[in-house]
Every structure is written in C-alpha cells, then in structure tokens.
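Duplicate of earlier report; Aquaporin-like protein input re-posted below.
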Amino acid sequence: MTTRELNRLHTHDLELGTTEATQKHVPRNVVPPRRISQRRLDFEHRRPRWLRECIAEATGVFMYVLPGIGAIATFTLNAASPIGASAFGSLFAIGFAFALGIAFAIITCAPTSGGHFSPAVTICLCIWQGFPLKKVPYYIFSQLVGGFLAALVLMGIYHQQINEMKELLLAAGKPLVANGAPASILCSFPNPDQSMGYVFFTEFICDCFVGFIIWAAIDPANPFISPAVAPLMIGLAYAAMAWGFGDVTLTMNMARDLGPRIVAAIFFGKEAFSYKNYSPIAILVSIPATMVSSAFYEFVFRDSVSVIQSGHAVHEDGDEALVRHITRTTTVEGIDERRGDYKS
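Output:
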C-alpha cells in the first residue's frame, strides 16, 4: 500500500458509499470519487436513449411487482401451515410490500424514464402533459415485460413450495386457479360469490383514488409534497387501497396484472384468463379510471400559473402572453372588488 493510499482519508473525511448522500447535511467531507474517463463518457453517449427508457420502465415494474407478489406468496403458501399465515404475512404486509416496491422503483428508475410503471399513467401523461405519443407503445410493452419477468422470477424462487401446494390441491380435487390457489399468487381472482359488477365498481373507484394521488404528487405547484417524499406517498396510496379493499379483489395496474397473468396461464392453464370472465376488469379498468381521475385533477385542481411560476412550464406564446394574461385577470379582479366595495 502506497503512502498516498494510507493518507487518503483525513480524520474528518467520510469514505465513498452511501455517505455521499449525506454530504449536503453534515459538516464532514466525502473523499472525491475517481475521475470520469473519456471512454466512460463516450460509452454513455452512445447508449440509445429510447432503450435506456424502456429498460428503466421494465426494471421499475419488476422492482415494484416482485416484492408485492412475494408477500402474497409468503401469505398464500403458509396459509395451511401449523403456525398459520399470520406469522408469515398479512394483507397489511402485502400492502406495504407493494408500497415500498413502488417507492424503490421510482427512486431508482424514474430519473431515466420518468417513472410511469403503469400503462394508465403513460396514457394519461400523453393526454395531459405532452408525453410523446410515439413512445407510448414502447413504454407499455416494457412495463408488461417487467411484470412478466417478476412473475417468472417468483416462480423460480418458490418453485418447490408452489409445486407441493399444486400436488395437494390436485389430490384433493381442488382448482389451481381461484382466489387462494397457487395462480392467485401471481394475479388476482375474485371469490366465487362475487358479482363482476361489484368487482368492477370497486376496482374503478380504487384506481381513481390512486390516479388522483399520483396527479397531486407530481404537480410541481403542490406545496405540500416534495420530490423526496413523492415516491413513498404514491406507494402508500396504492397500499391504502389494498388495505381497505384488497379482500374484494384488486389489481390497480395493467402492468402488475397482465404480465403475471400470462405466467399464471403458462403454469396453471388458460383458465387464468377465463375464470369468471374477470381478467378484462383486472387488465383494463385502471386505464379509464386513471383518465377520469387525472381529468378531474386537471380541470378542477390544476393551477397552471403556479406551475409556470415554479419554473416547470412556460406559456406557449411566450412571456409577453403570460404578462397580458396576468394583467387582464388581475385588472378584472380589481374592478370586481371595487364594484363590491361600492355597492356595500
């Protein structure tokens, strides 16, 4: 070891690692990282942007779905154990697994792709926020691939336990595709006594709720949420609906359902799509529901002047048009106020 390596750290310095995130908040210094080479810069410049965005969307959905269905697997596979499922998982644990998975996905992948992780969000961003239409198919395909891969990985991890459960159910003459059966680890299925109209209504309301929270969280003019807590708030919105209505049957995301449902059909049969004609509700309802909730936010709650003042948007006709708008609306309000004083 050289003298330079021995003297690399002063007594007040912090070594490279997670400590880098603290350098703005603590008085101690972090030693400088290795200098970036031109070869590195050239490599990063050559990477196709669209490919990085697609990989980020697939990775984000993978990171969000895998913990959630893993928590479902823990709960389902131990339901008949002597200790009981409550020792290994619960609806509360499942909701938290999805919430933290969503938060982790946003903080790791959103800087690259924007962090949609849902076809419904991608479509609504295209409608309301100017997300390029040509990217929509790529994003949705990537999201579905992420959910599909997460389900495949889970089947690999729990292959032995799922096979044991499958053999027991087949020996008892019970179905593999139903709520509480092995296929329900990957995707949702309604209870036998549930009507599809009731399930549709619940899914629609819960999806509207989550979509509304997402739109509020990504509004740059919202003073009550910072970029640091937005990922957790979005995740907790999903968890809150899972805690409140998970026993009714929910998916709340096409990417979370369709990819794993394809894997369920591969391992447990095509009934994964035909069971009680439920799959269209699970796959599609999140899209119109999020469109409704985002439209509600855009028409009622959006304050574009505040967004412009925050520096996140500009007037399409330039600053002069913005000044004319502010002058005109301020003048009108002033006149109305003076008229009210005069009448009183």
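The chain has two domains: 3-34, 49-303.

Merging into the original ticket.
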